[in-house]
Amino acid sequence: MSAVTLSGISKSYGAQRVLDSVDLHVPDGSLTAVLGPSGCGKTTLLRIVAGFVRSEAGTVSLGDRVVESPGTALAAEKRGVGYVPQEGALFPHLDVAANILYGLPRGRRSKTRLAELLDLAELPHDVARRSPHELSGGQQQRVALARALAPAPRVILLDEPFSSLDAGLRVSAGRAVRRVLRHAGATALLVTHDQGEALSLADQVAVMRAGRVVQVDSPTALYAHPVDPETATFIGGATVVSGQVRGGVALTSLGDLTVRAEDGPARVLVRPEQVRLVELAEAGVHGTVTEVSFYGAQVVVHLDLADGTPVTARGSSAHTPESGEKVGLLVEGAVVAYPESSQ
């Protein structure tokens, strides 16, 4: 397997700049998620790595081999890259065995190789003669992954691979695909708009916005220390309020909050799980519940402060307030602040 290194990748469609000097390094044997909203350029970036689309500037390297540069454009089939498109794109007229072995030369389409790939993809051998429509969505996704892994590619690219699955199946399919990639020792690049998917599956996450990579970090570091308020609100649904930092304390509409930041005006990040709802008498900050979303063990509560500031709280559903109820708010733990001058 090989590391993937992108340097200064740019691409436009007409007057629209889709990618703007993107740099990204995917370490050998790791899984990197490219996370961003629709239209940010993430799928175009993946297709450039695959060789389906030419970049206008920059280089793409797989290991120590440059496969794309202003003077080089190695054909997609010669890059040693496996590609898993949205919804798997299995051939409906072929059975599972034929789908998995499709990309191999005829001389390598053996029962032994098929058995190896079924085991790798955690699929029972008796699915080999079934048609794709006879499988669950998660099984279809693993068949598509087995097909991509069959030629032993240098890199695996996954383009929104779980977008067509329902919420429960997405989680289990994601975990299964991650295990398969780990067992194969594959270097993988996953494109997704789902933050939960990116944070739970990837070794590192690259956040894209308007054609640029704005932050590359481990999931824990990204969540704890997003580079700017816009990234913070995209990752985890944070509340961002204005404040004044003085001596390690941010003075905000949510109270006086502990922070590590220089003195001065700031934008202050508060995560939903930091906001605890209490009786009115227990807190100096009060809010009115505007909406409650129940998720079984957890509940997400949307509130408005007296000055109209919207706040989101997430916690145990054991104590679920009702819409219209007035409650006290306490913020637990230190918060992150961004100087107003950086906005």
Global morphology: globular
- The proportion of residues in beta strands is 35-45%
As a whole number of angstroms, the C-alpha radius of gyration is 24 Å
Q: Which bin fits the share of residues in helices?
A: 10-25%
Helix and strand string, N-terminal first?
A: EEEHEEEEHHHEHEHEEHHEEEEEEEEEE
CATH class of the largest domain: Alpha Beta
Q: Remind me, CATH topology of the largest domain? A: Rossmann fold
Strands of the largest sheet, in order across it?
A: 7-8-9-3-10-11
Pick out the low-confidence regions: none
Instruction: Report the sheet with the most strands, covering strand number, pairing sense and barrel closure.
Output: 6 strands, mixed
CATH architecture term of the largest domain: 3-Layer(aba) Sandwich
SS content category: alpha+beta
Task: Walk me through what this model shows.
Helices cover 22% and strands 38% of the residues. It contains eight helices and 21 strands. The model has no long low-confidence stretch (mean pLDDT 92). The protein starts with a strand and ends with a strand. It has two domains: 4-229, P-loop containing nucleotide triphosphate hydrolases (Rossmann fold, 3-Layer(aba) Sandwich), CATH 3.40.50; 239-342, OB fold (Dihydrolipoamide Acetyltransferase, E2P). It is globular and about 75 Å long. The strands form four sheets. A six-stranded mixed sheet has the order 7-8-9-3-10-11, with helices on both faces. Strands 2-1-4-5-6 form a five-stranded antiparallel sheet, with helices on one face. It has a five-stranded antiparallel sheet with strand order 14-13-12-15-21. The longest helix is centred in the middle third of the chain and has 18 residues, at 167-184. It has 343 residues and is of the alpha+beta class. The protein has helices spanning 42-50, 96-101, 111-120, 137-149, 167-184, 195-201, 219-224, 229-234, and strands at 4-13, 16-26, 31-35, 57-62, 65-69, 72-73, 81-84, 155-159, 187-192, 204-209, 212-217, 239-246, 249-252, 255-258, 264-270, 275-278, 285-295, 298-305, 310-316, 326-331, 336-339.
